Amino acid sequence: MAQMNMIEAIRSAMDVVMDKDPNVIVLGQDVGYFGGVFRCTDGLLRKYGDHRVIDAPIAEGGIVGAAIGMGLNGLRPVAEIQFADYIYPGFDQVVSELARIRYRSCGEFWSPVTIRTPCGGGIRGGQTHSQSPEAIFTHVSGIKTVMPSNPYDAKGLLIASIESDDPIIFFEPKRIYNGPFDGDPEKPAVSWASHPKGEVPEGYYTVPIGKAEIVRPGDELTIVTYGTLVHVAAAAAEAVGVDAEVIDVRSLSPLDADTLIESVKKTGRCLIAHEATRFGGYGAELSATLQRECFYYLEAPIRRVGGWDTPYPHAFEWQYFPGKKRLAAGIRKVMETAA
Amino acid sequence: MANKSRLHIPKPTARPGDEPDFSYLDLSPAGSVDKPPVASRTRDIEYLSSGLVRVLDEEHHAVGPWNPTLDPSALQVAMRWMMLNRVFDQRMWQIQRQGRISFYMEAAGEEAVSIAQGMALRPGDMCFPSYRNQGLYMYRGMNLVDMMCQCLSNTRDMCKGRQLPIMYHSKEGNVFSISGNLATQYPHAVGWAMASAIKGEDHIAASWVGDGSTAEADFHHALTFAAVYQAPVILNVVNNQWAISTFQGTAGGERRAFAARGLGLGIPGIRVDGNDLLAIYAVTVWAADRARRGGGPTLIELVTYRGGAHSTSDDPTKYRPKDEWAAFPLGDPIERLKNHLIVEGHWSEDKHEALNEELKAEVMAAWKEAQQYGTMTEGPFLDPSTMFDDVYAEPPKRLESQRRRMLDLEKNGGGI
Ligand SMILES: Cc1ncc(C[n+]2csc(CCOP(=O)(O)OP(=O)(O)O)c2C)c(N)n1
Ligand SMILES: [Mg+2]
Q1: How many angstroms away from the CA of A58 is the closest CA of chain B?
Q2: The CATH number of domain A213-336, selected from 3.40.50.920, 3.30.1540.10, 3.30.70.3450, 3.40.50.20
């Protein structure tokens, strides 16, 4: 086992699959010579050459569209969109094409593209380097949406994504690239080096798409979350002193509803948390599913904590970010409500 | 030709450790490119897109048909603006390095673009800039304290803390708000220009994108609309040779100049020395005149060099030779104008140095003042609940309740 941060784990995933399958290629802005603005593709150009690691023009629609074409012709492209905030020029290619080619051609054509893209805030990036647009993609039939919260899952899920014949949007919460984050920006940064999930096998393994993980077992409350907030939620539950079961959804679509349902039936209380704006957010889908399946077990209404329904402001990052305080307040509300 | 297909992967002529090599740049001597009448048909002036319009020659004299014969005093003013732009950038860069602002982008080496084009346009013309056009905001009257307050996200920040540093806007100065998303402003400029014509006004619009950004679909949308409706707009491509780590060839600049991008649509293109303030001024006046007289859009490629890092988050020594700027054949726009004014007897090294010191002091004084409106660590601070303002003209109820919840949480800390 090696100790890796999330960037190294993601790089290792691409390396392992590229080594195994000559059809896997990587393309994106600054991914070649430079190795990516977050260094996720560092070294791949030297190892696999410029026909498999391709510096793309600054055209997200072109990157996604060309990746689809390569996939139609037998390759397994891994496209990087430099920031999730810049995926929109490629949106039409994702929604109208990537997601639907298999369906409209009755399975005769399909393209196994994986789109990797860093998401989320907490890095003083302002509104165009902080967004969490996952719900826009989970709403689309025909693509899968994944968001790991640690290096081990990042590598295993990315390998599974690249090998999947379905197109996948792979969100990388950039705030936790270098270490877990409990939501307190004043604390010194923690690295993955001492975290059990920073232990990552050097070779091939997968984490299955469509499986949630119980990160912390508990009896009093279920917190359903993903990405950076997995770590924040665990810290918030601790601060409030509630025995919470924290579930990392990991795979937003397809959703492992069973794991969530079982937990909520056990605890009778549920808080859903994500960084993205709350209105119309992915949490609404989770909430609807859980209240239908667990209605007679619930001792309190399911609540959601999310980003405020505004763009992500530069200066008020920590008032915007659903941090420990906001989650703690949410936990209290769910706990207080009388049965 | 080979007997099987293969990809061409564009590669810059030099990477770290290599000798800088600009042999790929097509240059023409100052004064060698003809200046056609503004009413010329596009097909008759295609040569403008492959030549290089230059006014300042090797001996620093202004020569040829594009010489705008500007007053020496106007050139001294232009000089001051370019120098202010550079001094301001240098100071803000240091301030970022000291951790006192979160981010910065400088225009080093390309100051002539904003200043010359600012001078060539009329105040009523609307500008849709990119993030390296801070000179335009300065030229259009934004004061240094306001710019610094924006970078500080403090109580006097025009963006109320919502935007990254350098993403200014100026309604008063007719300079649009900077977006983080590349090239989106290009179609806006075309639409603004169409509206101007629809309303029967003679204001034109101008927009700027980098070489790398020309790959975005919005660049092409803008060209198409501008061409179809002959919108009174100037579309500028600032070819500073580099997008972050990729060179202009990755955006398709290897075989044909960016200036030629519009030719297929009938948009004339002019390739101009982007470090020659006189040449830029002259071609911009030409294009503006053409637009105002119903001649439609012009695409201008400004050939320059990104002298600094892409941004404070970037380290260019990882992907290009350290000394590349010094080898750039078109030099430094400030040096070039300085030398011109000196040979014409309107400037001196001493004056230059004195002005530089004066500008440094002006910038320092502005920085002192700006900090009084708050810094990242010291008050006064903006009211965070202002983040809920301006999301809508008529806000839905939920934003009001979220605002209250946010303020409560700030007060009671969520009970932990
Ligand atoms: C839609 C979009 N994609 C990617 C980015 C990330 N990005 C910011 S600047 C930049 C390079 C732009 O290069 P160029 O257009 O040449 O402008 P320059 O920085 O040289 O002025 C990139 C890739 C972005 N801001 N927006
Ligand atoms: Mg550039």
Answers
A1: 5
A2: 3.40.50.920
